[in-house]
Design a protein that fits this description.
This protein is of the alpha/beta class. The chain folds into two domains: 217 residues, Serine Threonine Protein Phosphatase 5, Tetratricopeptide repeat; 250 residues, Rossmann fold (3-Layer(aba) Sandwich). 42% of the residues lie in helices and 14% in strands. The strands form five sheets. It has a six-stranded mixed sheet, with helices on both faces. Helix 2 runs antiparallel to helix 3 and helix 10 packs antiparallel against helix 11. The longest helix has 25 residues. The chain is globular, with a radius of gyration of 24 Å. The N terminus is likely disordered.
């Protein structure tokens, strides 16, 4: 049996590798834009007729799911792409050297592609839309088989909970390589329950390799440059991926804001192996959805940069190039950053840490806060709101510092703010640490900011929510939760010129019914 499976899998891989080379070289501009999450480029290409090619449209949708581009998946579905449409998924698989190779998998659904790439939020979204959990690709692979084979234990558990049936087939593939004993145990328990002889559940605390790591291995050719992933955790049902209460968008419909622009950045995993900024990418992803679905921003006016898209060059491009090219007099701008901040202990300057940033060389690799404020202050906009779910002392939480350096007291205050059009909502002050709210899968500041936008901050119930209202709502909530849950002092700050802070900076206004 093992030999037969190996031969079959080898044949699949060989066919896929040959097709994968062609797919990589000849993927359409629409697919490339969808995979990198460039909604503006996708809209432009669609307007130019790219969507008329059904194969290109289908592959763009399916590979956007594999890339974890949830907003892009939603966009294609809203444009009429069938949930169960089938196309070619660019999928990493194990090669003979123990690393990864990209292959093309024809006949895959978006659910299969997302499961194979370990994109849990997309998998959950598609399942919530009633995607066929037992669909098979042309290679006869199901979402469960791929998730189990690649060690995505949480996704395998989710698929089983949603009715995935081919447990024995998934077990065969995983046992062939015997790489993921925790996933094997999960499947054995599921099979035993299916047969009515369930063994006791055993959970592990081993971490799961992230999807970006798998993709990086595949891009490198996957031979000897990195080890195969460690065993995957199979958490108890209570620890499964579960959306927070703020992840479901509110039903309210806001007035359109055609003259509002936003750059949203979330960095959870860093190139330099810095401590993980838990939920930072999720923060940014949900913030982007609120902007376009709740706050009335046009989708083409919102840029969302997650993890490896948020390099220093990428951040500079959109802050210093994209915004100045678009923002005109009396427009509004919103900048959001969730991730690590860092200080230069010698100069006292503060920096945002991009994906490729290094605290040991923060002057060269970080993005200075004073530069951010200065560039934003030159925009012709009437107001610029900067939200920083980060901290800069180097004392932990969402801040980092070069090895051997001591944490310090810093401020995100800047002379530019005292006289300009820029207002800053910061997660904490001085030497404080910005907390992650694990129970809600968000940064503490972001969670209560989103709660405020849902209506909690609209104390007078007039259908309008201003920045000052949100701050008045979230400040005591953040302080109280930080003390009770984390034994931590965290005091959000709202910084800017007194004249500007006295004005009504409107974040959302309910549309007329």
């Amino acid at each position: 049996m093992r030999t037969r499976i190996g031969i079959m899998l080898g044949a699949v891989m060989l066919a896929g590798v040959l097709a994968g080379c062609a797919s990589f070289l000849f993927s359409s501009p629409l697919q490339k834009a969808a995979v990198r999450g460039d909604l503006q480029a996708v809209r432009t290409l669609m307007d130019q007729g790219a969507g008329a090619d059904k194969e290109h449209l289908t592959d763009a949708y399916i590979n956007a799911a594999g890339a974890g581009q949830l907003q892009m998946v939603q966009f294609f579905l809203e444009k009429g792409v069938d949930l169960e449409t089938r196309g070619t998924c660019d999928q990493p698989v194990y090669n003979m050297g123990g690393g990864f190779t990209n292959v093309s998998m024809p006949g895959a659904t978006a659910l299969i592609c997302a499961a194979g790439h370990g994109e849990g939020r997309v998998v959950q979204f598609l399942l919530d839309r009633n995607a066929d959990v037992n669909a098979k690709s042309d290679f006869k692979w199901t979402a469960l088989q791929l998730a189990a084979y690649l060690g995505h234990g949480q996704i395998a558990k989710l698929l089983l909970d949603r009715g995935a049936e081919d447990i024995s087939g998934a077990l065969k593939f995983v046992r062939q390589y015997n790489r993921h004993p925790e996933v094997i145990r999960l499947l054995e328990q599921a099979e035993a329950r299916q047969l009515g002889t369930a063994p006791p559940v055993v959970a592990s605390t081993e971490p799961e390799p992230t999807t970006p790591t798998l993709k990086k291995r595949a891009q490198k050719g996957g031979r000897g440059e990195e080890e195969a992933p460690p065993p995957m955790a199979v958490p108890p049902a209570a620890d499964m991926i579960a959306p927070s209460d703020v992840d479901t968008l509110p039903a309210m419909r806001a007035k359109a804001r055609a003259n509002a622009y936003a750059v949203v950045v979330g960095i959870e995993q860093y190139q330099q192996k810095l401590p993980k900024a838990d939920f930072a990418a999720h923060d940014a992803e949900i913030m982007g959805q609120y902007l376009t679905k709740t706050l009335g921003y046009a989708e083409e006016n919102v840029v969302v940069l997650l993890n490896d898209r948020a390099t220093k060059t990428g951040v500079e491009k959109y802050i210093e190039g994209w915004l100045p090219d678009r923002v005109e007099k009396d427009d509004s701008v919103f900048i959001y950053f969730s991730g690590h901040g860092a200080p230069n202990p010698k100069t006292g300057k503060t920096f945002l840490v991009p994906y490729d940033g290094d605290p040991a060389f923060v002057d060269q690799t970080g993005y200075p806060l004073d530069r951010l404020y200065d560039r934003l202050s030159t925009l012709p906009a009437k107001e610029v709101v900067v939200m920083l779910d980060s901290c800069f002392s180097g004392a932990g939480g969402r801040s980092v510092i070069a090895k051997g350096m001591r944490p310090m007291v810093l401020s995100v205050e800047n002379p530019v703010l005292a006289k300009g059009k820029v207002v800053v909502l910061a997660a904490s002050s001085g030497a404080q640490v910005s907390s992650t709210y694990d129970q809600k899968n968000h940064g503490l500041l972001t969670y209560f900011f989103l709660k405020g936008l849902r209506g909690e901050a609209d104390r007078n119930q007039d259908g309008r929510i201003e920045l000052a209202e949100v701050f008045e709502y979230l400040k005591p909530q953040v302080e109280r939760t930080a003390r009770r849950e984390f034994h931590n002092e965290q005091t959000p700050q709202l910084l800017g010129s007194p004249d500007l802070l006295a004005k009504d900076i409107r974040l959302v206004e309910r549309a007329e019914r």
